[in-house]
Amino acid sequence: MAAPVSRLPARATRPVVDGFAALGTHSTFYARVLAAVPTVLVRYWRHVLRHVNDISFGSASLLAGGGTIGVVFAMSAVASTQIGLEGYRGLDIIGLSPMTGLMSALVNTREIAPVVASVALAAKVGTGFTAQLGAMRISDEIDALETMAVPSVPFLVSTRMAAAVLAVVPLYLVGLFASYAATSLAVTQIKGQSSGTYDYYFQLLLTPGDVGFSLLKAVVFAVIITLVHCGYGFHAAGGPEGVGRAAGRALRTSIVTIAIVDVLLTLTIWGTQPTLPGVGA
Q1: Crossing angle for the helix pair 159-185 and 69-93, nearest 10 degrees?
Q2: Does residue 163 sit within a domain?
Q3: What angle do CA 98, 109, 170 make, to 5 degrees?
């Protein structure tokens, strides 16, 4: 009985030790990826451009198995349509329905558009990165690159990081336009509000600074998604089943991280008592 009892502390602490070991492995990996980005922009720029094309447009139709631009546009439009419909309904109850344009400029720009675009990027691009790198890992392709003196982390991961950052800017602006257009159509065409009233309050609150900070959030989310998903794919093990588990864990980790970082960025940029430009609040 003494031997099993002596092994109990080790069994109890092993998950904690393994967790810290994995954290250290991924942290070191993230640092190597970020440090190599300037190099790959010069040395592997053709691969970066190829990844930008794959991320944005893919090789098939935009919505079915193709690029991310159609997915971001569709998801942003659907989410912002609900913002317009429910926002108008809630404000109309208290007699403030003309303020729907103000709400659209505030909510879509600061929160909805960045989060929706990042979720689409994680689901479409991030899982693809995990599957690609995981398949290369279990088939020994990454080891083969190393034996040929090709640095695997810069060539496979840093190129994808640079491409994701370059591609997310136009992708996000497309999603932001879809958000504005969908909310406007929902309020003015479905709910029947005057387009002049909507546009007045919308333009009153929308500022270039908010759009810039919103784009900054999208870029930060793209970096997080690429690091997390490539990290899980690069260190995948256990055959095809292990790649599937890695893809699921990466998606879960990236979405939770995005939610946490979104709150922190919002508090950092706009504070706990944000001001509303144009309305004196």
Answers
A1: 40
A2: yes
A3: 135
Classify residue 88: in a domain, yes or no: yes
Look up the pTM and report it.
Answer: 0.87
Taking only the tens place, the pLDDT of each residue in 57-92 is 765 444 444 567 888 888 999 999 998 999 889 888
Query: Has residue 111 been placed in a domain?
Result: yes
In contact, 126 and 232? CB cutoff 8 Å:
no
CB-based contact 82:89 (threshold 8 Å): no
Residue 264 clears pLDDT 60, i.e. is over it? yes
Q: What is the pLDDT of residues 103-151, one digit of tens each?
A: 888 889 999 999 999 998 998 889 989 999 999 999 989 889 888 988 8
List the one residue out of 199, 218, 202 whose CA is nearest residue 276: 202
Q: What's residue 280's pLDDT?
A: 54
DSSP secondary structure, 56-125, as one string? HT-SS-SSSSS-SHHHHHHHHHHHHHHHHHHHHHHHHHTT-GGGHHHHIIIIIIIIIHHHHHHHHHIIII
26 band by pLDDT with thresholds 50, 70 and 90: confident
Q: What is the domain extent for residue 127? A: 27-268
Q: Give the count of domains, the chain.
A: 1
Specify if 166 maps to a domain.
Answer: yes
**Cβ-based burial of 108 (10 A; exposed 0-12, middle 13-18, buried ≥19):** buried
